[in-house]
Amino acid sequence: MSRNIIETGMGAIVILVAVLFLVFSYSVSDLRPAQGYDVIAKFNAVDGLTVGSDVRVAGVKVGTVVGERIDQSEYRAVVTMKINDNIELADDTAVRISSAGILGGKYVKLEPGSSKQMLQSGGELTNTKDVISLEELLGKVIFLVTGDEGGPK
C-alpha cells in the first residue's frame, strides 16, 4: 500500500516538473503572435530569410517577418513585417537583409531615415538594399585572389 502512495507521489512530481518546464519554455520563447503594424518591402532576393526572422534597428529587435511572397508583376520578393507599435519609422528608412553571423540566420536590418514623414500601417519601405549571398561573396574573393578581372563567364 505504501509503495503505491510513493509511486503516485513521484508520478505527480514528474508531471508537475513537466508542466513547469513547458510554462517556462513558452515564456522565454517567442511563440506569441506578433503585435504591431504591418510594413512591406520588396527585394530582388531574400536568400535565407524566413517567416519568424527578426526585424532589428541598431541590433535591437523591433519586429518580426510575418510573410513572404512573390510580386507576380515585378518578380520581386515581397516581405511583410510586423513592427512594434511603439516604433515609428520614417518613410525613407533603409532596409537590408543581414546575416546574424557565419552560421546564423538572416534578419531584416532597418536603418532609420531623416524624413519627418512617418510610415503608416500597410506602408511600403522603398529604400531596400539587396542581400549579398555567401556564395557570391566567396566568388568575388576568389576572383580577387586569383587576379581574374573578368569574373565568371
How would you describe this protein?
With 153 residues, this protein is of the alpha/beta class. It folds into 2 domains: 1-32; 37-139, no CATH class. It is built from 2 helices and 8 strands. It has an 8-stranded mixed β-sheet, with no helix packed on it. A hairpin with a 4-residue loop joins strand 3 (60-71) and strand 4 (76-83). The longest helix is centred in the N-terminal third of the chain and has 27 residues, at 2-28. It is elongated and about 80 Å long.
Brief sketch in words of this structure:
By secondary structure, the chain is of the alpha/beta class. Helix content is 26%, strand content 32%.
List the strand order in the largest sheet.
7-1-4-3-2-6-5-8
Radius of gyration: 23 Å
Order of helices and strands: HEEEEEEEEH
The termini sit apart by 82 Å
The tally of structural domains comes to 2
Count of DSSP H/I helices: 2
Strand percentage: 25-35%
Q: What structural category do the secondary elements indicate? A: alpha/beta
Report the average pLDDT across residues. 84
